[in-house]
Amino acid sequence: MKLLHSGKVRDVYEDGDDVILVASDRVSVFDVVLPTPIPDKGALLTALSLWWFEQLSDVVENHVLSAVDVPTKFSGRAVRCRRLDMLPVECVARGYLTGSGLEEYRRNGMVSGIALPDGLRDGDRLPEPLFTPTTKAPVGEHDEAITYTQVVEQLGEKTAARLRETTLRVYRRGAELAAERGIIIADTKLEFGVDAGGNLVLGDELLTSDSSRFWPGDRWRPGGAQPSFDKQFVRDWAISSGWDKTEPAPTVPPEIVAATRDRYVEAYELLTGRRW
Question: How high is the pLDDT of residue 143?
Answer without folding.
Answer: 79
